[in-house]
Amino acid sequence: MRNALIVWGGWDGHQPREVADIFARVLRDEGFGVDVSDSLDAFKDAERLRKLSLIVPVWTMGKITSEQANPVLEAVRDHGVGIAGCHGGMCDSFREHTEWQFMTGGQWVAHPGNDGTSYRVKVLRTGHPITEGIGDFDVTSEQYYMHVDPANRVLATTEFPVAAGPHVPNGRFDMPVVWTRFYGKGRVFYNSLGHQANIVESEPCLSLMRRGFLWAAR
Question: DSSP secondary structure string, 66-89?
Fold first, then answer.
């Protein structure tokens, strides 16, 4: 059986417990054995992490110690354990931990217009199984402005600017929304949608997460 670990916590505004419950349901529906923890200390057991198929962080902001972070980095980098997540729960997790950002491929820096911004997500025609058959779609939520690794394989984007902000004089450009990458031997999947549980549950966001979990877990 494939096994997954979900660790949730951090800023309550992203409804981490509710999102973790959704992810646990999705993974169990796909036949995973799922453990769920509300403590970063769940990351300390390096031997346990190496035996997983997938790690799913749902933790916005906060701080992580080396004793908590290093087993995750090692499991993904050296043992091929997948890691997958969404929104601030994976790419605004630990703002001072640059190696976490290196692994995940991006870091949130702004969301001009805040929650309630309506924008279009453009799905790129890459032939990737995560986005196969999914067309462009509209969403009303936070539109994440991110600093991203140019090595990411981008699967979907959104056009900026939509709302006012200091980025507007730079003109129109596409910001990655969904991507995959590798960190050593491990597969990494990220989706910037998912401000709260209702967005995570909406389609096609939930299908993207389901497929992303399966891809990352090989």
Answer: HHHHHHHHHHHHHH--EEEEEHHH
Question: CA–CA separation, 81 vs 187, rounded Å?
Answer: 7
Strands (E), 142-214: 145-148, 153-160, 173-183, 186-191
Cβ-in-10-Å burial (0-12, 13-18, 19+) of 31 comes to: exposed
DSSP label of 7: E
Task: Please give the helix or strand (H or E) that residue 210 lies within, else none.
Answer: helix 205-216
Handedness of CA 82, 88, 89, 91 (dihedral sign): positive
Q: What is the pLDDT of residue 110?
A: 98
pLDDT of residue 161: 98
Q: Which uninterrupted H or E stretch holds 123?
A: strand 117-123
Please name each of the domains of the chain with its CATH number: 3-216 (3.40.50.880)
> Which pLDDT value is given to residue 8?
98
Q: Whole-model pTM above 0.70? A: yes
Helix (H) or strand (E) holding 50: helix 46-50
The CA radius of gyration of the chain, in Å to the nearest whole number, is 16
Determine the average pLDDT of the residues in 178-191.
98
Quick one: 96 exposed, middle or buried, by C-beta within 10 A (0-12, 13-18, 19+)? exposed
